[in-house]
Write a structure and sequence with these properties.
Layout lengths: L1 H14 L11 E2 L5 E2 L3 H17 L6 H21 L8 H12 L3 H8 L3 H9 L6 H11 L3 H7 L1
Antiparallel strand pairs: 1-2
């Protein structure tokens, strides 16, 4: 049993080149993704990402672009687990976060929700309460969780 474990660990170390100060490599999970195990490895990963980003995307080779993608996904997974973003508590915050995620401008969001830009602006500023049609559109068009919307209203 011990012999088998050592072989698995040595194979994993040979596959993954990213090592922290502790000498422990980031582990590959079964999906082929690199998994960051601790804060030290995360910091080293971020430094490597920063160095690659400073070169500029057009100056990177295919291998470097692939490395950047893998490191970025690993860092994102680590951040999702260890440093998650706070869940917005108010309706305007939820809408702003969703607009940011979908890269929507306010005028396009208003059109998507079937309201005027003025009405959306009033709701976003807290000067007007949303009606049931607006709330339903948030759920249907922006895929916001109905329970979170009801708690915020």
């Amino acid at each position: 049993m011990m012999q088998k474990t050592r072989r698995v660990i040595s194979k994993a170390r040979a596959r993954v080149k990213l090592k922290g100060k502790t000498g422990k490599p980031a582990k590959k999970v079964k999906t082929g993704k690199t998994k960051i195990q601790n804060k030290e490895v995360y910091e080293l990963t971020m430094k490597e990402i920063d160095a690659l980003m400073k070169k500029g995307e057009e100056n990177l080779s295919e291998k470097e672009l692939d490395r950047l993608r893998i490191l970025s996904e690993a860092a994102e997974d680590y951040e999702d687990i260890h440093e998650p973003l706070p869940i917005p508590s108010s309706l305007p915050e939820m809408i702003r976060m969703k607009m940011f995620q979908l890269k929507l401008k306010q005028h396009y969001t208003a059109r998507l929700l079937g309201v005027s830009e003025a009405k959306l602006s009033l709701i976003m500023s807290g000067k007007q309460k949303p009606d049931i049609y607006f709330v339903k559109a948030l759920h249907d068009k922006l895929n916001l969780d109905a329970n979170q919307i009801l708690q915020a209203v």
